[in-house]
Amino acid sequence: MQGLHLTGDLFDCGCSAAILTDLKTLATLCRQTTVDSGLTVVDEKFHVFPDVDGHPGGITGALLLAESHLAVHTWPERRGVTLDVYVCNFTSDNCAKAQRLFDTLVVAFRPASQTVNRNRARRPRGVDPGHRCGGPGRRPGRGSHPTRSSSTG
Questions:
Q1: In terms of DSSP bridges, do strands 80-88 and 59-65 run parallel, antiparallel, or are they unpaired?
Q2: Does the CA dihedral 53-21-24-66 come out positive or negative?
C-alpha cells in the first residue's frame, strides 16, 4: 500500500504539564489537530496510566482515521512523547495532511530535541502505482474503499 509513515521521539518537551498528563487536554489536542489537518477521525481510545511515586502517569492514545492512524504516548516524568502518524493513499494523496498533523503536534509539544523518521511506503513490483506521496492523482475507475481479498495461489 502506498502511504507515509512518520514517527517521532520528542525529548524535554516544553509544553504545559497538562498536555502530557490530562486526558481531556491531550485528546482534544490530538482530535482538533487531526481534523484541522484535513484527516477523518473514525474512532479513538486513550488510556491514562496510574501515578508513580507521587507523579502523574503518562497517557497512551490512538485515533483511528479513515486514512489510517495517529498514536501518541507521553512520559511526563521524562517530559517525553512519541508520535506515530500513518496515512495510506488509496484514493487520494494524504501525505501533506499527515505531515501537517505531525508538524503541528511537534510544535505543540515544544521538544528541546527530537528524532524523526519519515518513511514512504512504496508499491510492490507489478502493482498499479495508484497514489503515493508526491505521486499522481486519483486512479480512474476506483471506488473510495479497497476490496479486501486473499488468495492462496
A1: unpaired
A2: negative
Q: What is the residue-wise DSSP string for 95-126?
A: HHHHHHHHHHHHHHH--SEEEEEEEEE-PPTT
| CA contacts within 13 A on the Cβ side of 122 | 5
Give the catalytic positions in this structure. 68, 73, 88
Spatial CA neighbour of 94 closest among 6, 7, 29, 4: 4
For 12-64, how does the pLDDT look when each residue is reduced to its tens digit (9 = 90+)? 999 999 999 999 999 999 999 999 999 999 999 999 999 989 999 999 999 99
**In the block, which residue shows the cell 505521486?**
135
| 110 neighbors 120 (Cβ within 8 angstroms) | no
Domain boundaries, the chain: 3-121
Q: pLDDT (tens digit, 9 = 90+) per residue, 61-82? A: 999 999 999 999 999 999 999 9
**Annotation: CATH topology of 3-121:** S-adenosylmethionine decarboxylase (3.60.90)
Residue 141's identity, in one-letter code, is: G
End-to-end distance of the chain based on CA atoms, in angstroms? 20
Give the chain's largest Cα–Cα span: 58
